[in-house]
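Input for the complex:
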Amino acid sequence: MKEATPPSSIAPPLGFTLNGTAVTVPVPDPDVTALDVLRDRLGRTEVKRVCDGGACGACTVLLGEAPVVTCLLPAARLAGSAVRTVAGLGPDLHPVQRALLDHDGLQCGFCTPGFVMSAVGFVDSWRASRGDVRPDRDTVAEALAGNLCRCGAYAGILTAVAEACTGRYDTDPDTAEQPTRNGARARVTGQARYTADLLGDGVLRGGLVRSERAHARIGEVDLGPARRLPGVFAAVELVQPDRVVRHHGQEIAAVAAVDTATLRRALDLVRVTYQPLPAVVGRQAPGGPAVYPPKHRGVPRTGEATLPVPARRRGNLYGPVRVFSRRRRRAARLLRERAGHYVAGVWTTSGQSHTPFEPHCCVAEWDGDRLTVHTSTQMVGMAARLLARHCSVPDANVTVLAEHVGGGFGAKLEITPETVAAVELARVARRPVGVVLDRAEELAYGGQRSAAEIEVDLLAAPEPERSALRVRAMSYGGTAVGSQVASLCRSSYPRLAKDLQDFNVVDNSPPAKPFRGPGGPVMCWALEQAVDEAAYGMGADPVDLRYGWTDDPAMRRLYQTARTQPRWRDRPPPGTARGRVRRGIGVAAAHWVYYAHADTRIRVSVVDGCLVAATATQDTGTGAASVVRHVLAGRFGVGLDRVRLELGDSRLPPGPLTGGSAGSASLAPAAADAAGRLQAALAKWCTAEFGLFQARPASEGVVHRDGLIGWPELLDKSPELSAIGRRTRDRVPYRLSPLLTGGLAIGRGHTGAVMLAEVEVDVELGLVRVPWVWSGLSVGTVMLPELARGQCHGGVVQGVGLALFEEKVLHSGTGAALTTDFDHYCLPGIGDQPEVEVHFEESGFGYSASPGVGLAELATLPVAAAIGNAVHHATGWRPRDLPLHPWRVTAGVRR
Amino acid sequence: MTPAWRTKTLRAGGTDLTPLRRSGIALGDVVDIADLPGCPELVGVTRRGDGAVRIGAATTVTGLTGHPLLTAYRALTDASRQLATPQVRALATVAGNLLQRSRCPYFRQPGFSCLKRGDAGCDARSGDHARAACLVGDGCVWPHGSTLATVLTAYEAVVERLDQPALSIGDLLGDGAVRDHALPEGSLVTGVLLPDGTGEGSAYRRVSPRRHADWPLVEAAVRLRIDSTVRSARVAAGGVATTPVRLLAVEDALLDQAPTVANLRSAARLAGAEWRPPEATAYKVPLLRTALADALESAAAHAGESMVN
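Predicted:
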């Protein structure tokens, strides 16, 4: 990529050694960073750009022997140095890489190259000075404290790095050759290519002009000066049809230029005339100036609803949605009569930014009326169809590609503005255009879990029939509506009478998006603490009360197992801990919906003796793609080395979007079905080819009158054959037909989780640590336990973040986010990772076409609530507001 | 003749300047200190004849950790292990850390009013500011970002400059009301001098929500000389005001007292007694008192060990 050179440049070219090879790069601009040089000039895309502020460590390389962040390092400092990136570790894997593969110390992989380099620096120096001794957990955490992982793979990383110090991984274990996780080897070696890595030569850099106002009518958008700037290839307007912007940062225009420096200058040249409109941000929004005119069509949806239900509107207030109540009149009567233990309270939660480490990004290219889009998305198939509609071209003209996706968590489940911008700019420029959000944009506008205020009235009696619940939840989704929090209480404690009311408030702030278990952790934070308070108020054990309120046999078994955990069994009465650091333990439970994408299809082909499975889904770091390989390897009795996946391409047979924890439950039955069909085809082929008699496919291979030909042997001999399998139906009808939802089915039954969290609260400093979590889940049979455990760990880390640290803060006047970097938006670090014990209650779902169903969302639902209950147990103070900032804790405990 | 660099922005590790230039807050020409002609030794730790220790301005934070000449300066070396992240500490320099700009989000982002960017008002004062200072005047309300500034305040460090008289650490930092430091334009910090630390006990205590790699809500650095009673005490607090604060009332209360836990804690309770903190940050005062009590106990224990050695 060419950079515009300021005329005053006199700096000599920069020379240094990169991965053992001498390189020379002209660096005329003193503000160019080492990351700019490595990633953008030299194409070392394994060096990742995530926070661009020194906090996350994704851009870590070794400078000499020392791990350093390259995003804060002026390029000039590289002069004469030796730089090593993850690509320079080969050809053999470093022990750290082998250990990470063996302990599944990664998910989406976007932070992995940086983690590897920090760990290599630590492990090599540790072994040089101390020998092959295993360091303790906190020593590793301290050494890796400069690296963040949004997926929450810390538990595996901690174990892997400690093990790498012992010398155990100096040679390849079998797992390093074929790790359980799909794509893992490419990720630990930095070879995995993400959309953000595709902005090489010949790709124009696009960027967005954003509203400086919270609410305004857009007058003129003057793109002329930007267009006239040399090096600018396109400038387009992105204003909505009604020409109103409704939140700070809303997209107004986009520009594409030859490089980022020119782009920045061009963006500054775009002049926008605003006619300000009255704006409102925050809790006073219901009575504030209207965000939307009456009868406005096209109010965006947060996507935070299990089943979207339209709601009445009064000004900025939408709701209530009450259709998920059960025996509402009975609930009202019981709550009025109060024959039992009555608990009432209001709980609040904050906005939680998704901030996937690969930001929203897109590279688009037109060829006539055919469009190819690389985009970091959780839905390649759906994205292609939506883009075709957006561009008014036939579906077949649009291809969406996403080979590796660096995390999504729900933020990448729609056609997002950077993709629209790249597509429009590429159309005008007639050249490929890439748009990548920077971290400030990602944190401010990339999506967040709605903040909420939840009012709970609970009448509790040991008998569920005499108990009742009223929940009124107010969700603050920015400009978007449709969130459900109270409604999610329907599946908890089904025998309680319930009045569930969901309200949504719109204001002039960026729209919320569905975040892992949308509404769920928020619902649990209120409901599960109310149940806890009721139990202790009644003198009952919180596990016993919940046990008595459920008929679900799997949940009952989970409660029984939880009850026998020594830390729970031997706990003191609540609020009796004394001293400055008080330990406590809390329980919380949750349910989630069993979703499956009924349309899922997988094509399995035999190519050169290997199986190639193809489906239009994407690998964001969940275990779902890996499940496909394991199903096929199992059915054909071959190693994983003989099963390849083709994913991330909308032209492939339809696959599931990554959402609703539906991946494995959609893909596993389709893979099994495809295997069966391919085996039938193989049987047919070999009958003719070898002249077999009475040949039929069996589990080991093709059985015929005179013996058996095993599947591995048949794969070796087979010509190119393929078969398409589809997700077979469950043996009972879906609760919600996929015909109503465009493919997403809701299956019978709910998944369930019971979690215990232990906390240590320093009541003087207000610091809460979570040393231990027990995560018990009922999701049927677990297909890949090691990856499923990783999902549970990630769910716990994100729950710890929600509980203790994460809060998207908006300026009350403008709605501009104040938390636009990782200094101010605080993600949990590796030192905040609890020890997590995962327990799978493997029963139920025998009627499902899939052995087990999804768990990713379930695994994060009760975490914050269990922590809240543990804090109460430790201190006697009932937390109400998230996150548990030290100032809230000290104030609460003092009261 | 004034050398050209004296009118330019000097860059050491660049870990703070880089994002500031990217966001357009820091402007003008940049000169890397490594490229300065005729510059004295800027990197390394040396011990002088009088026992004082000199730390070169461009010594990295990692370069302090475990340095053999700094074993008597435990508050400094402990702090050097806790600030920022390992990958930043390997690049960030001592002087750069002292001269870093505010970490206030209203300063770092465009679109807000900020005294330190030359505006007339301060949006942090009226906006969300739970992490702001608890001892505030009419100026800026955000605490100084430098942990080393807090520690070096406790050490009463002297700041050397090239061809110019040395400054006290307090004079270098100034009052923080509208500037993050008071170093005159055209000055180059070449090193910091620490008094002989032999025989004293010191400690650094940081209170951060996250276990590692987090900014402090409050922090305390203390030095004690103990000879059956406290012979001298130096106590500094960070995270509470626009520049680190020496807590003289605490120091006075410690003097000539036996270093019992009760005495140390009652002295710590004097911290911030006369402050009038804003409501949102009043929580920092009790946090500071606890952090300070922890630090004093740790320093007293350390002083005991130092005497035995």
